[in-house]
Amino acid sequence: MTTTAALLVAARERLARVPREGLGLLRTSRWRRDRIVRVGDAWHLGVLLLTDDGVLSTGEILRAAEEVRRGYTAESSRARAERRAMARRGGFAEGEVVHLGWERLDADAVDAGEASGPLALLDGEPAVRWSATGGLMPLAGYLDEKIALLQR
Asked: Residue 105 and residue 120: Cα distance in Å, rounded?
């Protein structure tokens, strides 16, 4: 049986030359405007974010952008534009991809038979739920597919 941790280590080795995307965290202050600051980086593999020392579940994905006045028909569009501006204020470059709302996953718990976010065991093998309504698929195949797309 291959462990989740072993699959992730092998994936990191294969991704060594592939660019990473920024991990952001909201910072609030009484004296400064809210901003999203960089707390690390990761390879984006679909529903997973792979870091040097862990694995995270993907949350919201946006691109940092300067704040501009626009007319929005939906409040959600206005809120998203504000988060994009917060990332820019926090030090992300214009157009840089920022991941927010990610959660740390526990690969060891998965290997012990527990689920952690989209990761779980399926017939004793590590698996991933690739969408909220999708079924589990083998993690090895999922990583192979996502890594191949990034290496193009």
From this structure: 11
Beta sheet of 60-63, edge-to-edge order: 60-63, 97-100, 21-27, 35-45, 48-50, 55-57, 103-105
Q: Domains in the chain: how many in total?
A: 1
Would you say 61 and 97 are in contact if contact means Cβ atoms under 8 Å apart?
A: yes
The 10 Å Cβ neighbour count of residue 94 is 11
Question: What is this structure's pTM?
Answer: 0.91
Say what the pLDDT of residue 44 is.
Answer: 97
| Residue-level pLDDT at 18 | 95
Of 110, 152, 139, the closest CA to residue 11 belongs to 139
> Which residue range forms the structural domain that includes residue 71?
4-150
Can you give the three-state secondary structure of the chain, one letter per residue? CCCHHHHHHHHHHHCCCCCCEEEEEEECCCCCCCEEEEEEEEEEECCEEECCCCEEECCEEEECCCCCCCCCCCHHHHHHHHHHHHHHHCCCCCCCEEEECCEEECHHHHHCCCCECCEEEECCEEEEECCCCCCEEEHHHHHHHHHHHHCC
CB 92 within 8 A of CB 24: yes
